[in-house]
């Protein structure tokens, strides 16, 4: 379920989880019927707890996650970390600026990447065909029952024959590793059984569990695990295994899935290797539920969020989902040419809209008619290659410049611009203005926008402005990752000692100076 977010900057030295950050059982939180709640107040940037994966496995031993060409600024290793199932065909916001040309997460499409979340259709080009022989490392042999490790090829053959439930190598490995972990620590089982399973997964998981019991060596199945339990564990692996880019695979966690979803969260969860850390993004009072955006709904429209929540069988009580706040990502201009107001649709049904300035109310039909304009404007924006092109197309439409369609076009243009291009600074400032109007919380993608802006400002000699951009990136990194995270320390250093030349900038980012101007 949770779709987590990795730090913006992935340096060669793994970021360290702070020694002052407690493990979940020692954290100042409690698990209740309403999720995980705070038992004391947390200030923004406080790392509330951290957790290391119970088990973790790679997607494939013979194929890489994707072919990164990291000659851009931040050595990004996929800013968005996500779960590994329920392939949604909604518009997932993945506009990571610059780079990733040959990766299927290339994000040089207009910010929609329709994740597929390393799921069944596998956007990340993992070859999950178990027809070839899979090998185990010595370390892995110690994480599963000896009998399973000794005849792993036979287990892989079974998985290939039951590929609806065990077709992914990481799930196949994690299942036998989880069973081995439960044999050593019986308390794991009830904690994992409390996690949700998607209803459409149940039939495949039940059938596979029954067949698996007759296949696995008896000693590899703990006596406490029933067929029903085994089926549920399979469902948990599909619904809650977190994609971990550092190992090109996924991990299973005991406590993180207890946190409830909110489209407007108060906690950010990020990964350092196979460890997750939960950081307060906003002030959290005693008794507040800890929530994070399990779907990574950055800059999504209400319709996209609603579709994803239904598909994931997730409930949300945030202002957007209860109708208390309008759909900021679908902003229009007032029909009165003399009015500068912004018209925002409601997130309730039927959907109406009201101008923020003149209070003119749009009918349901008025709002519905806008979908035609949205599609037409999105199509017209696809060939745009300059900011002037985008501005002219948007001006000729009823869409406000903060509309998701306009944001997507700006994000796409930003990925194609050289830092010394005339439009680079203005496009990236406009992106941040869009985010400021639509996304009311800290997020690594926003940090990336600040980073991209700062890069252009440095290359163009606007050092004071670059320092201000790095200050904003640092402030947001504190809320996403905590003050002692490597990403946060990196932006703190850039804010305090902003590079004044291309060469100094390249040195700070550890990139080839010849490649820093163009980052396509």
From TrEMBL:
Species for this entry: Saprolegnia parasitica (strain CBS 223.65)
Region (Disordered) residue spans: 1-23
Coiled-coil regions listed: none
Transmembrane segment boundaries: none
Matching Gene3D superfamilies: SET domain, Tetratricopeptide repeat domain
Organismal lineage: Eukaryota, Sar, Stramenopiles, Oomycota, Saprolegniomycetes
Amino acid composition bias (Polar residues), ranges on this chain: 10-23
Superkingdom classification of source: Eukaryota
InterPro entries xrefs: H3K4_H4K5_MeTrfase, SET_dom_sf, TPR-like_helical_dom_sf
Name of protein: SET domain-containing protein
SUPFAM superfamilies according to UniProt: SET domain
């Amino acid at each position: 379920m949770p779709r987590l977010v990795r730090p913006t900057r992935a340096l060669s030295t793994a970021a360290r989880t702070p020694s002052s950050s407690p493990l979940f059982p020692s954290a100042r939180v409690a698990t209740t019927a309403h999720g995980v709640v705070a038992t004391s107040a947390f200030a923004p940037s406080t790392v509330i707890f951290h957790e290391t994966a119970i088990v973790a496995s790679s997607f494939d031993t013979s194929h890489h996650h994707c072919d990164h060409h990291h000659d851009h600024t931040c050595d990004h290793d996929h800013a968005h970390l996500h779960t590994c199932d329920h392939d949604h065909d909604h518009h997932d916001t993945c506009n990571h600026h610059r780079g990733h040309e040959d990766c299927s997460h290339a994000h040089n499409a207009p910010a929609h990447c329709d994740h597929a979340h390393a799921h069944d259709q596998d956007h990340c080009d993992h070859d999950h065909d178990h027809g070839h022989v899979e090998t185990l490392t010595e370390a892995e042999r110690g994480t599963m029952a000896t009998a399973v490790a000794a005849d792993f090829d036979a287990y892989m053959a079974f998985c290939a024959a039951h590929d609806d439930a065990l077709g992914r190598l990481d799930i196949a490995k994690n299942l036998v590793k989880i069973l081995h972990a439960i044999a050593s620590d019986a308390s794991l089982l009830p904690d994992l059984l409390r996690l949700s399973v998607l209803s459409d997964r149940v039939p495949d998981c039940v059938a596979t569990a029954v067949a698996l019991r007759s296949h696995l060596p008896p000693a590899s199945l703990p006596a406490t695990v029933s067929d029903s339990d085994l089926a549920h564990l399979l469902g948990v692996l599909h619904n809650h295994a977190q994609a971990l880019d550092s190992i090109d695979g996924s991990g299973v966690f005991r406590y993180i899935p207890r946190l409830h979803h909110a489209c407007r969260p108060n906690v950010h969860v990020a990964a350092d290797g196979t460890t997750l850390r939960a950081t307060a993004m906003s002030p959290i009072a005693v008794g507040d539920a800890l929530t994070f955006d399990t779907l990574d709904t950055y800059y999504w429209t209400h319709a996209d969020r609603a579709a994803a929540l239904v598909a994931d069988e997730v409930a949300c009580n945030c202002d957007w989902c209860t109708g208390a706040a309008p759909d900021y990502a679908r902003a229009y201009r007032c029909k009165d040419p003399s009015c500068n107001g912004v018209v925002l649709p409601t997130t309730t049904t039927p959907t109406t809209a009201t101008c923020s300035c003149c209070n003119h109310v749009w009918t349901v039909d008025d709002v519905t008619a806008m979908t035609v304009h949205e599609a037409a404007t999105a199509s017209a924006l696809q060939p745009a290659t300059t900011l002037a092109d985008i501005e002219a197309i948007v001006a000729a439409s009823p869409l406000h410049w903060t509309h998701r369609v306009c944001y997507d076009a700006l994000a796409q243009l930003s990925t194609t611009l050289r830092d010394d291009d005339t439009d680079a600074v203005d496009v990236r400032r406009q992106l941040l203005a869009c985010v400021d109007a639509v996304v009311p919380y800290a997020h690594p993608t926003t940090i990336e926008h600040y980073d991209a802006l700062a890069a252009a400002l440095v290359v163009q000699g606007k050092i004071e402005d670059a320092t201000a951009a790095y200050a904003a990136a640092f402030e947001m990194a504190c809320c996403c990752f905590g003050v002692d995270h490597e990403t946060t320390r990196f932006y703190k250093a850039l804010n305090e000692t902003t590079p004044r030349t291309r060469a100094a900038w390249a040195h700070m980012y550890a990139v080839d100076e010849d490649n820093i101007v163009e980052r396509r």
